[in-house]
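question for whoever is on the cluster today: can someone run the full assembly for these? two chains, 678 residues total. i dont have access anymore since they changed the login thing
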Amino acid sequence: MYREAILNKFRPSLDNILYILHDLQDNNPQRYLAKDDIRVCADYLNVPYSYVHSVASFYTMFSLEPRGSNIIRLCDSPPCHLMGSKSLLTFLKETLKVDIGGTTKDGKFTLELTSCLGVCGVAPAMMLNDEMLGNLTPEKVDAILDRRRKES
Amino acid sequence: MNLVRNHVLISIDAGTVMAGARAVEKTLVEEIAKQGLADEIAVLETGSVGTIGQGVVIVVYPEGVYYANVTPQDVPQLVEEHLLKGRPLKRLMLAETPKQSVIKKERAGLLKEQPRIVLRNCGVIDPEKIDEYIGEGGYLAIGNALASMKPEGVIDEIKKSGLAGRGGASFSTGMKWDFARRAPGDIKYIICNADEGEPGTFKDRLILEGDPHKLIEGMLLAGYAVGASKGFVYIRGEYALSIERLERAIAQARDYGLLGMNILESTFTFDIFVMKGAGAYVCGEETALIESLEGKRGHPRNKPPYPVTEGLWGKPTVVNNVETLANVPEIMKNGADWFRGYGTEKCPGTKVYTIIGNVATPGLIEAEMGTTLRDIIYEYAGGIKEGKKFKGALVGGAAGAFLGPDMLDVQMDFVNLKEYTAVLGSGAILVMDESADMVEMLQNVLYFFKHESCGHCVPCRLGTTQLVKLIDRIAVSKGSQEDVNKLLKISDVMRDASFCPLGQSLYLPISSSLKYFRDEFDAHIR
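^ ran it for u. tokens below:
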């Protein structure tokens, strides 16, 4: 039902596809585009299922796999790399026991890499859901994760 | 009416918000009220004041004192000392205030400072208030153009100014507009490319966050010149604050009759729509961006036809970068000759740079075209951090080139850098000190390209994969000289054979890093 409400916010025109997919993904409890999401979008825009799938799979902000309740997107562009993002990646992999793209067993965190977030002044940086975080060290990341574990 | 004694500007951009600017602002307002100063002291929001990575930044006027790394706990003391007793709080003062002007080096090394062009209002006005932009002479240029100029006149003036695209391609803006104007058809579009994805670049974000109305006015002038009635801003999905501020600015402009039907009682009709991207570096390429706007995968198109004749939905379309469009109102207000007073003969005007990495004061700066890398690092960015030695700089983002110490005194502009097989690109400068590992830096750049290659054409898709394999081998000292040479060879083929600039530009970081730092690669070869 909630999907219908999302679709009705937009004109059924192809140039709205990214907006619709953003909105569907944001409202999916598992933070991804499920088959149902793709199907309703395809029906609404009157295009084949495969078309919507091809668009969704092209853009890195969309996921076709279920994700954790918190999404970590670590920036690995040259500026962050120069300022130490590699040690953050090692730390995140070890502490969460996941690889890039993986979700923790408790379903609380998904670890992703992202290209430049445009906040290079505070490199190394990452996004936790919609929140930008900068000047990071493994200790700071640890504290952030801890806080988030307690919250959820 | 109350006379305000002090203005306290707080920088609200994505970086300072991250550092807790909203909490500082709240405490500041409360503390000022508590001290009974609410009538005398105004707290205003503004965009980036130019310094980055220094936490929450506030500036107190008329003294012009900059405070950095301010926390809510600091606020009571700051209010009491500076605003109540008039004694600047040295503990939090910024040692080196960011340059708010364009430095001109006269003969004999004398410095002269000129007003900025693109960033004139950034860190000065409140970007959320249209009246402040108007107060600084905003919307005057479009008013004048509508009242007393023909569209061709606007194009002539922009042509005369020599303004060239600031997204990296440096194509003449006036020519582009002229092509689109002459292209047959009634429906034409203006697109602002704000899909800033070049690593290390965030100038467009700070322009959008600091002075969104300037972009709107630039698009209005472009629309009037070209004969378009619709404009789109394609903006990165990650740029939440930019999107919020731009949308607010557009709504304000509509309220004031500056967007919509019959603007300023003329026959000109124009409106702007914001489009949010979804994370694809290749969409910074103009035809890929157009595909994405149409609701497709962001694959680049064949050129020709160029967008100026067949762009969005097959109609003539102008695609300009944020910085390019932000230059336009100032040129129309002050004239092409004034604009030519900045920069070099072949490249007039200024360039906005983001300078980051191992420098003392990373930040957002605006310098004349032709300013040397040495001046940018040492005059604007306070030199290398901790007094270390300069090793190299990656100029122009990942699709840019590494420059070594002997490039420090080369005049940097679009034309001149080409002679050194380098580019100005988007204006990102990543500075590396003596401790940087150049093999690792190149490895990182190649990883980036492998990830962002859209897979549309074979040379780029396979080329980036092979390059990553080679560099991985070299990095762990398992490579051979032949592997190093292969890096060059593959990137050379990619330059000739790739479909779009993504694959074509990889030879820049590869050939330049080998030119300046070959010894480091050799050291990795057994």
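summary bc i know u wont read the tokens: Chain B touches chain A through 55 residues (CB under 8 Å). Chain B has a mean pLDDT of 93.
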